[in-house]
Design brief:
Elements lengths: L7 H22 L1 H8 L3 H5 L3 H23 L8 H27 L3 H24 L1
Helix pairs in contact: 1-4, 1-6, 2-6, 4-6, 5-6
Length: about 140
């Protein structure tokens, strides 16, 4: 792996975008539905160690953004913004969402919960692909 060509600012912006998308996705867009599917209440969410959750989530989202940047920089040419979006969409849909679908089947999660969780990554990786190729 060649880290010398990594645009670290783009990786950081892509990582932060995960929190922006997640805040919208699991907030006003699907927050109530997600809480219902998970069996959470406002009070039960307050009991969580949010520093640990957000801290580890940041590290994991950073790893995703960094690996995606390495993937995008692997070829002989620089991918366009459209290609970055397409790569992100395809990775999100055909790798992440499909894998989460298998997991949802065996854990007997609802279709609704699978959709909420899996398509967060489809949207996120599409956006990350745009960010990583635009910067």
């Amino acid at each position: 792996m060649d880290f010398s060509s990594i645009n670290w600012l783009a990786v950081l912006v892509a990582t932060v975008s995960a929190f922006v998308v997640g805040g919208l996705w699991y907030g006003p867009i699907f927050g109530k539905a997600w809480m219902s599917e998970m069996g959470f209440t406002e009070d039960s969410l307050k009991e969580a160690n949010m520093a640990k959750i957000y801290g580890l989530a940041f590290v994991l989202e950073f790893i995703i953004a960094l690996q995606f940047a390495l993937f995008l920089g692997h070829g002989d040419s620089d991918p366009s913004i459209g290609q970055g979006a397409a790569y992100g969409f395809h990775i999100g849909l055909f790798f992440i969402a499909a894998a989460m679908g298998v997991n949802a089947l065996f854990s007997r999660a609802t279709l609704r919960l699978w959709f909420i969780n899996a398509f967060y990554f489809v949207v996120l990786l599409t956006l990350m692909g745009v960010i990583l190729t635009a910067m």
